[in-house]
Amino acid sequence: MQKNKIHIWHFSDTHGFADLLKVPKDIDIMIFSGDCSNVRDPYNNESEVRAFIDWYAAQKSTYKIFVAGNHDTSIEKGLVKVRDFTNNGIIYLENDFVIIEDLKIWGSPFSPTFGDWSFMRSRDKMDKLWKHIPEDTDILVTHSPAKSILDLSYTRDGKLEFCGCSSLMKHVQRVVPKLHCFGHIHCVRNIKNAGTMKVANLDTIFSNGSIVTDNKFGILTSHGNTFEL
Predict the structure, then answer these.
(1) What are the tens digits of pLDDT across the range 170-185?
(2) Which terminal residue of the chain has fewer beta carbons within 10 Å of its beta carbon, N or C?
(3) Does the residue 80 lie in any domain?
(4) Is the whole-model pTM more than 0.90?
């Protein structure tokens, strides 16, 4: 007997504007991949994260996944705790996995160091983290994109650069998940990073769920991406 398909909605980088999203109906698993908040100071950041938790808890879905991002400073600081998510029916993943409807979902908030934010490691230390991604992962959720995958942006001196993690790409090729969900790199100027893509000789679907454009916060570029697995 054929199994029913699982309907998934992936979104990311709401930065305080989740209430502007057009949330799809009849979703089995909602996946959020980081940066629900915006301000750097963790004590001011806390109210933004808690507002997102309230919003997320109110959405209609059987399962809700949350992976933090570099802007979610109050989570790394411990002002917002794992129980604040679980008590609201949200599954919090930090370098760990959960199995839902026979799908193994592994999530991590870390991204390569850029500025003074949270959940960051130097690029030469990222490989030690990604080695822990299980071989049988079906859905990989990271805040960081893999290198050269919907990650094109400008450096501080105005040069174009693929900002993702090359080590992560190596481990995506090792694991070959059905779906890799991430955010972190928004749309910028004339560059559209939000959306999905595939690459040659790899069955993985890549999804950048970021909903904002740099320097245009408050106007949504995207409303996330939906999938059937």
Answers:
(1) 999 999 999 999 999 9
(2) N
(3) yes
(4) yes
Say how far apart CA 176 and CA 211 lie, in whole Å: 25
Asked if 190 and 184 count as a contact pair (C-beta separation under 8 A), the reply is no
Note down the domain range covering 58.
7-228
């990222």: which residue's tokens?
126
pLDDT tens digits for range 59-81: 999 999 999 999 999 999 999 99
| Distance of alpha carbon 178 from alpha carbon 63, whole angstroms | 18
Residue 81's identity, in one-letter code, is K
* DSSP assignment letter at 94: S
Given a contact cutoff of 8 angstroms between Cβ atoms, the answer to whether 187 and 194 are in contact is yes
Domain count, the chain: 1
Q: Looking at this protein, which amino acid is placed at residue 198?
A: K
Contact 47, 122 (CB under 8 A): no
Q: How many residues does the chain have?
A: 229
CATH code of residue 83 = 3.60.21.10
Give the span between the Cα atoms of 121 and 111, in whole angstroms: 6
State the Cα–Cα distance between residues 196 and 207, nearest whole angstrom.
4
The single-letter DSSP state of residue 83 is H
